[in-house]
Amino acid sequence: VFLAQGVLCSWRKVYNEIASYSFIQFSSEMSTKPSNKTRKKEPEAKHPVEPTNRPQSLTVVGIGASAGGLNALNTFFDALAPDTGMAFVVVTHLHPDHESHMAELLQKHTQMPATQVSKKVKVEPNHVYVIPPNRSILLTDTHLEAVEFTEPHGKRSPIDAFFRSLASEHRESIAIILSGGGTDGSVGIKDVKESGGVIMAQHPSDAEYNSMPLAAMSTGLVDVVLPVDQLAKKLMDYVQHRPQLPHDPGQLSEQEAETFQRILSHVHARTGQDFNQYKRSTILRRVERRMQLNGFPKLDGYLNFLRQHPNEAQSMFNDILIGVTNFFRDHDPWKALEEKVMPRLFQNKENADEIRIWTIGCATGEEAYGLAMLLLEEAARHDVNPRLQIFASDLDENSIARAREGLYPASIEADVSPERLERFFVREGEYFRVKHEIRDIVLFTNHNILRDPPFSRQDLIACRNLLIYLQREVQDKVFDIFHYALNPGGFLFLGSSESAEHLSDMYEVADKANRLYIAKPWHAERRQIPALPLTLRRRHPAGAHGLPGALPSKHYSEMAHTFEDHHEKALESYAPPSVIINENQMILHVSETAGRYLVQPRGPITGEVLKLVRPELQMALRSAIFQAFENGRAIVSSPVLVQFNGHPHKVVLAVRPRIEPRGLGGEAEKQALVLFLENELDESEHKGDGQTDPSDGGGEHHGLVSQLQSEILNLREQLQVTIEEYDSSNEEMKAANEELQSINEEYRSATEELETSKEELQSINEELQTVNNDMKNKLEELAQAHMDLENLMGASEIGTLFLDRELRIKRFTAGVNNIINILSTDRGRPIQHLTHKLKGYDFIEDAEQVLRHLTSLEREVQTEEGNYYQLRFRPFRTIQDHIEGVVITFINITALKARDEQLLEVNETLEQRVSERTHQLDLAYHQISQARDLFYALFNANPVPSALLSLEDGVFLNVNDAYARFAGRKRDEMLGHAAQEFGLPLDPTLQPEVVARVQELGIVRDLELEVARPSGEIATVLASIQLIHLDETPALVLSFIDITERARAEQEIRMLASDLTVAEQEERRRISQILHDDLQQRIFAVKMQTSMLRDAYQQGNFQSAQVDFDQLEEMLDTSITITRNLSIDLSPAVLQGEGLTDALIWLAVQMNDQYGLQVSIHTNGISTQCEDTLRILLFQAVREALFNVVKHGGTAHAQISISKTVDDVFVTISDDGRGFDASAIFDESQGSGGLMNIRHRLQLMGCDLEVESQPGQGTRLVIRIPAAQVAP
Amino acid sequence: MSSILIVEDHAILGKALVRLLTEKVAQAVIAVVGSAEEAIEKLPELQVDMALVDVSLPKMNGIQLVAYLHEKYPELPCLVITGHLIPFYLQRSLEAGARGYVLKDDVAGIIEGVQSVLKGGTYVSKALRD
Q1: B19 contacts on A by Cβ (under 8 Å)
Q2: How many CB pairs under 8 A join A and B?
Q3: How is A329-343 classified by DSSP, letter by letter?
Q4: Cβ separation A1092–B19 shorter than 8 A
Q5: Cα–Cα distance list, A997 to A162, A214, A988 (Å)
Q6: Interval A733-765: pLDDT, tens
Q7: Cβ of B10 and A1104 within 8 Å?
Q8: Which residues pair with A1141 in a beta bridge?
């Protein structure tokens, strides 16, 4: 064995160096059974196998973050050195339709090349690879590839997908979860962890979105939780601190091996789990991983750390037991299980039967729940309803606690079909919780398959990927235990790299590819429970591997035994022939030489010495044995003659009784040694003997002899009879003995059966304990609930009394004591036996009534102390709706009662006050209504139109008569209608800015609004609007004065003022023009001539001066005329204080002088004495009219006549000219001081001017003056 | 023989100017037009040594005419004559290219201005020199 191991080790070393083919397993099992395993290929053994070390291989770091995790990624790469030798793959959630600039963005934060994976690329160290949008990214061998999603948007988990591919391709990779929403990544990290990888997560308080790190942490698999910058540092530390331990535990140095053993012992002591049964290489890998994580390159350093940090042992425990599993992990085996095994579990089952499944190493429960789902689905396809029971066991309490909770991240959608999610899960935010239906059939328990008795009578045992961690011989023992626990024909479901084929006596193969096996029937009726490996160890401390040490000692004991035998044999050959018999005279041992004294008689072979011994010796022997046992000392018989080969020999029998201390059952056994001492008889002696007999005898002798002989004969006969009797009784005893023996047999088989049932009981006990634990938990909950209830009742101070159907006390609370003096010992007593303090009230009768009618009752009763109680009777209903008594509650309502009375009093007082106040109110109301009537009288009589409108919709609440008149409607038809219906002001939609101002200021005064009158005419009003509140309803009070006329007058005044200004401007221009064009030029010309004249005068040469004196004089005359006319124009002298008539006469002269127009005046004796302003205006009007005649009339004759009616005086200017379009005059004169202007001014003074003119018919201009303005 | 064009819409004053200049400026040949438009129309047919332009003309005013002449006939000097004693007009006239500015009542100034401009000089009436 040692030699083989050595060869293997070196062979393996070579192999390791050339290649790292992961499918070749180097494990300790090869050392023990190399022939079985050396060449065995296990291609599908991806996960659960031991990590093959790839010392030179590239470490790939997968980084998962959501779209919002860019900041975290930037920080991470900022803190990361560019030459770590690792490759980084960044997987984020990207928008499927948008281009991603993640790589460019990250490039700003790292010196490593950052690229988006668009095609298949080889993974290089010191590179950053980024996922492209709308693709998932997968690792295939040494290449990265972007693959289209198969899942719909919203159900994609790209981080999980990548981590899984990472774990399947690379051992000891690293997965990092950064800021992100959702639970993506928390499933994939399991695979990474299981393949020996390290899981890191950003600290939730450091992350912008912490639900992804939290989900990862909730799996319990995360090794490192740090803020993102420290995470980068930790990662670099981790890679640098790779311990250089040999791959094979056998190659550890002696000291290292010892330290390693100490580490295991320490973990054993801390956690109670002994990993000595586990494969050393696996354990060493895990220890190495912990060392690397904590930064220890050497085993002893780590041992110190382990001693100082109690939690580290637990972390190691968790790491070794990597509690990871997924739903329906490995598709094909589960499919096979569903299709081949599940239907067969239901075969031959009836309703009363049970289907029992045991899953071992259930971890966080995915496998157990998966089995439960298959089982429930299968059950739905069958008519029978056997009880379903799944036992799920694991070593790790934490995993079990999580399994019991049954809460899984939403990313399990990748493993569980939508139908199953719908049927078996309830969604809780980012998580799924298993439904009760499935939870109820699974029983989780902490159980060690190596130590605790198994659960028995299983129909299916699923134990996947647990055995591979165990050493080979331990595995076989576990298979033995499984065989015991399985029903014959029950199934065993193993992991992809586990096999039970080599145990063909226990299992037959059902499906080799999917590792399904069937348990063969037991050989015996019912087997004993196999020895449990860990229990076994306790009895043999040397351990299974301590065999070489044990060998010599065993050899020595065997040798010692042999010498003793030799000695005995030597002695035996020298000693006289002997037989050892027991008390029952059965031969136990015959010495070598004793054969000659023994003869096997006819009949069945017997061991009885008395039958075997030669007949001659029988008598003597019988008597000697008897005496020897009787007296307890050695007896020597008298010599007996025995014929050997015709020669008589004298034989003496010596019987020595002895006690053998180590008999059956520890009791001492009586034995006897029978020695045959023989002496060959001399012929002589023989003869002599023969001769002496007769010679010695003589007569007397002879008689004595014959007498003796006859006596002997008698005795012999008697003896013969006795012997026969003895024999017969002996036979009887033999029969009895036979019976006893068969009873014994039965007893023994019964014992065996008992033994078996004891084992079963143990198993059942185990189950019961599990159930009991569950019960205990429930009981605690119940106790808690009970306590809460008690406290609740105590706190409410409500007495509650439970009576059974016979009105015996079942239960009560302390509050009852106020009514009935009741002690806890009174439980079970009829309530009638107790007195109560309720005055004149028989509540027993009520209780009975409640029982009869099953209805509730309420009573108010007074106690003797004067307190009031409310009694409530309710029938006590059980969950099954049985009536099991009455519940009576006693509520102290004394205070309530007192308060009731107080209330009554207060009520009366209040009522009185109310009536007083009502009276006062009536008075006040009367006054108010008077005031209101007065107000309305005033309101209606008010000449200013006023209205009250609702602010909200503009509806009239009230209007006064003046308003109604203004609106031209009746008051009644306006009320209740909106203002806009009538086109009235303050329609909110018409005047929003006004309403806004009113709301802001409360009141708006002197607001000019334009309103349409009913006639359609637009009226201008000056309004005042006030905001008031009528019972919280905002309303507007509107009143206004009609200022239409005033506004129009003002408008006219404004226009006139403007006209006047224009006229004045015109007049000034005219004067300026006269001054400049006529007067000035003439004066310039005159000046030039006089200047020339002066020069001539000074030179005395008058002839040369070309001065035309006539012309000069004429120019001066003209200038004088111009100035004169101008001054008359500006203010005709005739207008100074004289009447209009005089002015008209002067004007007629002027017109004739200047323009040759003959004007006749007919005053008709009418006085035209009037105010100066009007007179000047009339003068101007007439002059303007005459100018028009001059300009447009084409005639030399005009007539002015004055006429009069009662109201008015008319001045008419008419001509007989060619006539013209009257409107043209006004147009033409517009803007000047013409007729238009004059008409306006006349109108302002209450007068008017009209022109009647038609081409060819002359023109007639009439000025109307109110008679009141003309003096009589 | 100097040839002078007078642009003056007041015929009386125009005659007075012809009389004045004929007598006081030796051998002056003088033509009179009543508006700027007429001046522009007739000018190509005339050989003129200078123009005497009244500011107040019916349509196009004198200053606009000076500007036009100054651009079209840069060699033709213009003297503005006016009744307005307004420095603003003086300034505008000089900007338009006038060589002088004389007031109508400054008879000696008119003569002196015409002579000065004909000799290639400039002239502004005394009252406006400040």
Answers
A1: 1088-1089, 1092, 1106
A2: 43
A3: -SHHHHHHIIIIIHH
A4: yes
A5: 68, 58, 12
A6: 887 787 787 778 778 877 888 888 888 888 888
A7: no
A8: none
What pairs with residue A891 in β-bridges? A870
β partners of residue A147? A136
Across the interface, whether the CB atoms of B19 and A1077 are under 8 A apart is answered no
Find, among A1132, A1156, A1129, the residue nearest to A1143 by Cα.
A1132
User: What pairing do the DSSP bridges indicate for beta strands A127-130 and A87-92?
Assistant: parallel
With an 8 Å Cβ cutoff, are B15 and A1088 in contact? no
Neighbours of A972 (CB within 10 A): 9
Positions in chain A short of pLDDT 50: 1-56, 536-558, 663-665, 684-697, 986-989, 1230-1232
Residue A99 burial by Cβ neighbours in a 10 Å radius (0-12, 13-18, 19+)? exposed
Q: What string of DSSP letters covers A712-770? A: HHHHHHHHHHHHHHHHHHHHHHHHHHHHHHHHHHHHHHHHHHHHHHHHHHHHHHHHHHH
| Statement: the pTM of the whole predicted model exceeds 0.80 | no
Among chain B residues, CA nearest to A1081: B13
Beta bridge partners of B53: B7, B80
Spatial distance between the Cα atoms of A1075 and A1054, rounded to a whole number of angstroms = 31
* CB A162, CB A140: distance < 8 Å: no
Beta bridge partners of A657: A672
User: For residue A783, what are its two tokens?
Assistant: 């106790």
Report the distance separating Cα A29 and Cα A50, nearest Å: 12
Beta carbons of B20 and A1088 less than 8 Å apart? yes
The residues near A138 (Cβ < 8 Å, ≥ 6 apart) are: A144, A145, A146, A147, A161, A162, A165
Q: Which residue in B112, B100, B19 sits closest to B52, CA to CA?
A: B100
Which residue of chain A comes nearest to B10, CA vs CA? A1081
How far is CA A135 from each of CA A94, A119, A156, rounded to the nearest angstrom?
9, 11, 10
Choose among A18, A464, A85, A26: nearest CA to A284. Answer: A26
Report the phi/psi class of residue A200: left, alpha or beta, with left for phi > 0 and alpha for psi in -120 to 50. Answer: beta
Chain A hits for B83, Cβ within 8 Å: 1076, 1080-1081, 1084
For A434-459, the pLDDT digits (tens) are 988 888 888 888 888 887 778 888 89
Sequence-ordered strand ranges (E) for A1088-1220? 1158-1162, 1197-1204, 1208-1215
Distance of CA A259 to the CA centre of its chain: 45
DSSP H stretches of helix in A65-210: 70-79, 102-107, 158-169, 188-194
Per-residue pLDDT, A11: 42
Taking only the tens place, the pLDDT of each residue in A127-143 is 999 888 888 888 887 88
Residues pairing with A678 in the sheet: A651
Residue A720 corresponds to which amino acid? Q
Closest by CA position to A1241, among listed A1185, A1178, A1184: A1178
